[in-house]
Amino acid sequence: ILRRVRNSTRFMGGVLLISTMDIMQLLPIRGRPPMLSSHMITSFDFYQLNHSVRSTGDDDFCELQRLTRCSPTAFGPSEEKRFRALLTKCCTFVNDIRHPSIPTTATYVYGKKKPGADINDQIVEARKRRSQ
Question: Which residue has the higher pLDDT, 126 or 113?
Answer without folding.
Answer: 126
